[in-house]
């Protein structure tokens, strides 16, 4: 939590119950501890006093996480979309909303259909390759389905197959992609 009256700024750590109830740290503590990039500060996501609207968005985001953790993906997505509408600059809410929507899309679309998360993963890999983003320079990811084997091949930048996975196991496909990083 952050208090800012224009003259004084306090970051209140309310989860330190075993250490006197709460602690107060300066911005540098959180920048170092949480490895916050400048982009997180510049976009208005982190280390700022929240408006009532943004606080409500944060509450919707927290409830969305509870729904997601208990595999109730429909209400998780609804709450994450509401959270994003209330606090659109929050990076964590952005990520959580993308994750919720992708989980729901896995229920709506077949693996070979446009809109399935596997296609989204391939699109993102291509976008990273085109844009030349930093993490894409380390390992470019390409996915493709072979008609004879029915497997998704995850290929690194040297075009050697890293892993083959059954496309019905979407979690395994994403784990294979994560191994490339």
Explained architecture:
The chain has 181 residues and is α+β, with helices and mostly antiparallel strands. It folds into 3 domains: 2-38, no CATH class; 52-108, no CATH class; 117-179, no CATH class. Helices cover 51% and strands 13% of the residues. It is built from 8 helices and 6 strands; from the N terminus they run E-E-E-H-H-H-H-H-H-H-E-E-E-H. Strands 1-2-3 form a 3-stranded antiparallel β-sheet. A 3-stranded antiparallel β-sheet has the order 4-5-6. A hairpin with a 4-residue loop joins strand 1 (2-4) and strand 2 (9-13). Helix 3 packs antiparallel against helix 4 (73-86) and helix 4 (73-86) runs antiparallel to helix 5 (91-108). The longest helix has 18 residues, at 52-69.
Order of strands, main sheet, comes to 1-2-3
Uncertain spans: 134-170
- In round numbers, the mean pLDDT is 75
**Broad shape:** globular
Largest sheet: 3 strands, antiparallel
What is the terminal-to-terminal distance? 33 Å
Task: Tell me the domain tally.
Answer: 3
Q: Please estimate the helix content.
A: 40-55%
What fraction of residues sit in β-strands?
5-15%
Number of helices: 8
The radius of gyration over CA amounts to 20 Å
Helices and strands, with pairings:
Layout: E1 2-4, E2 9-13, E3 23-25, H1 27-33, H2 38-42, H3 52-69, H4 73-86, H5 91-108, H6 117-131, H7 134-138, E4 142-145, E5 152-155, E6 161-165, H8 170-179
Helix pairs in contact: 3-4, 4-5
Q: Keywords for this structure?
A:
13% strand, 3 domains, three-stranded antiparallel β-sheet, globular, 181 residues, alpha+beta
Brief characterization of the structure:
The protein is of the alpha+beta class. The chain is 51% helix and 13% strand. It has 3 domains: 37 residues, no CATH class; 57 residues, no CATH class; 63 residues, no CATH class.
């Amino acid at each position: 939590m952050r208090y800012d009256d224009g003259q004084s700024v306090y970051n209140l750590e309310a989860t330190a119950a075993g250490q006197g109830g709460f602690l107060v740290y300066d911005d540098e503590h959180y920048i170092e501890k949480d490895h916050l990039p400048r982009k997180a500060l510049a976009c208005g996501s982190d280390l700022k006093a929240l408006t009532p609207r943004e606080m409500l968005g944060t509450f919707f985001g927290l409830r969305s996480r509870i729904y997601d953790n208990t595999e109730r993906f429909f209400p998780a997505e609804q709450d994450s979309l509401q959270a994003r509408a209330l606090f659109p600059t929050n990076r964590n809410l952005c990520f959580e909303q993308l994750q919720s929507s992708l989980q729901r899309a896995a229920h709506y679309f077949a693996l070979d259909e446009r809109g399935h998360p596997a296609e989204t993963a391939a699109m993102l890999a291509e976008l990273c390759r085109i844009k030349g983003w930093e993490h894409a320079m380390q390992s470019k990811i390409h996915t493709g389905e072979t008609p004879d084997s029915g497997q998704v091949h995850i290929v690194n930048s040297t075009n050697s197959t890293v892993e083959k996975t059954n496309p019905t196991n979407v979690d395994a496909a994403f784990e294979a992609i994560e191994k490339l990083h």
